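Reagents: none. Just compute today. tRNA(Ile)-lysidine synthase.
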Amino acid sequence: MARIPPSVAAIRTAVRRALPPGLVLVACSGGADSLALAAAARFVGSSVGLVTVDHGLQEGSARRALDVAAWGRSIGLDPVEVATVSVTGLPGGPEAAARTARYGALSAVASRVGAAAVLLGHTRDDQAETVLLALARGAGTRGLSGMPRQKGIFGRPLLDVARADTRKACAALGLVPWEDPHNSDPAYARSRVRWAALPALVEALGPAVVANLARSAEQIAADNATLDALAAAALDAAYTADRALDLGVLAALAPAIRTRVLHSWAKVLGAGGAALSHRHVEALDAFVTNWRGQGPVSLPGGIRVARVREELVRVPD
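Predicted 3D structure written out:
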């Protein structure tokens, strides 16, 4: 029996550990990461399908999506779906809009076919890039925790696998990946990190920096989960009868817990989403730690919060 190439074996092992019972879909763009993921899932899984998303942003994208779908059917994946999306009118830049459209399409297909999970092909290198981008944005520990292994129906089984190994696996299996030109376009921040910033760090600090960044993200994510659980309990304790927040309870909390409580409360009020920033939370925290009689704080969504006696309350617009 021929020896299985180490890269193929590593990806199959990672996928086997992550597969839940039931139908699993693989999100496949045709790139090396998702091709290797789909091939591994087909090998180790009992019920595996494929979804490829056509964003319509590049010439020939519809044809490429059909080719990916045809390949999926040829190796026995079922069901195989092509989801065509539009990014027009979606918030954020091109990357953010495409991501929003893609995840919406994947969720819709998974719901329609009754899939237990959708597997994404993000690798250890993608995780390291995500951490560097978060550092550049000053995103705090939530950003530094990187991409979760599991969030809802979405799973990322390859976060411990190097990008180089997905390419080696494709070569070993005779798969020819598509090279997305956006991945090498310096107009995109992630491309600049991939081709300039991260290689510079590897040259300066050694190749282990990629794995160390990804490992740090996992450790920070575990810490965040604990802090979030403590904050959820603290939020319940801080609520007053009218769902305002008791300033005395807030003042007794450690800063890392209190700011999470304030962030969660703002989301409960309806101020969630990317527009809710650390500046908003800092302004709410100042009602507790630096009270000088300041007026109401405006949050995203037209929400206003003020300190009234010994409570934080939502006030009319």
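Residues 89 and 217 are 32 Å apart (CA to CA).
Action item: order primers for follow-up constructs.
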